[in-house]
Amino acid sequence: xxxxxxxxxxxxxxxxxxxxxxxxxxxxxxxxxxxxxxxxxxxxxxxxxxxxxxxxxxxxxxxxxxxxxxxxxxxxxxxxxxxxxxxxxxxxxxxxxxxxxxxxxxxxxxxxxxxxxxxxxxxxxxxxxxxxxxxxxxxxxxxxxxxxxxxxxxxxxxxxxxxxxxxxxxxxxxxxxxxxxxxxxxxxxxxxxxxxxxxxxxxxxxxxxxxxxxxxxxxxxxxxxxxxxxxxxxxxxxxxxxxxxxxxxxxxxxxxxxxxxxxxxxxxxxxxxxxxxxxxxxxxxxxxxxxxxxxxxxxxxxxxxxxxxxxxxxxxxxxxxxxxxxxxxxxxxxxxxxxxxxxxxxxx
Length: 348
Hints:
Elements: H1 2-17, E1 30-31, E2 38-39, H2 42-52, H3 71-93, H4 95-98, H5 105-116, E3 120-122, H6 129-133, E4 137-139, E5 144-153, E6 158-165, H7 170-178, H8 185-190, H9 192-195, E7 202-207, E8 218-221, H10 227-231, E9 235-237, E10 241-246, H11 251-254, H12 269-275, H13 278-281, H14 285-293, H15 302-347
Parallel strand pairs: 3-9, 5-10
Antiparallel strand pairs: 1-2, 4-5, 5-6, 7-8, 7-10
InterPro entries: BCD1, BCD1_alpha/beta, Znf_HIT
Function: Required for box C/D snoRNAs accumulation involved in snoRNA processing, snoRNA transport to the nucleolus and ribosome biogenesis.
Family: Belongs to the BCD1 family.
């Protein structure tokens, strides 16, 4: 450190002995890191950069003889090498940020041609199992889509997947599985119920995507049309999944099925009050205050519920007693009025 301090002091002495290279009138105070020109003030520094076009930034790769090489120069070279390593490694670490799309070329080709076929195709991230299962491709030679098709046979508890061209008729696709003679023997044995059922008594449904979580709806497809025609103007998540249903089980697919995982809300107190008699709408103040004291989510014990029921019964009995007393009082009043009228008639 002492050597560095002495070097800096010597540099200051040299600057004080030299004059400004710009104005040549004042003593030099600064030295340009790039061209080593001396200057005395900020105005001279700006004039120097304007005249010579100097950037004022030190050239970190300039040649330096060993006789002038110091510990500070060694530290500068070490930092320069570290910075170079960071710059070289940055594209590898930020590769996802520089890519134009998060999908591969094959996925983009599939999306483009699905859009041309008027199919709203949704591609999931690679971490999803449905994305990894999808084998749908676009054949450039034939210029057609080959869909990864999943067929679900709920009456036989069987599922099959296959890659089929988009121009194949849906009835022909099913015949490869349930034809009495031409289908695969193993599949024919597993789908025995479907093999024995005529093809005109089968219906094919596809789930409607992007709906509310508490509703479920299926699109009924036409067996006489191709897969391309059946998928037009529909949303497909990765690949189509078709449910083949035997006649007699189609009603649950043709109507909306509420999601069982979502509990239907209880009827509001206003609707209950409308259906209740007028005598039961007005509750004593004690019951309402007791209910208002309970916080949301608080549970009453059985003893508290029994005590409240007894209080309600007592209040109802008191109310009935008050009503009967008022009725008897009105009746007595009517009798007294009748006697008065009779007395007046007698005197007259």
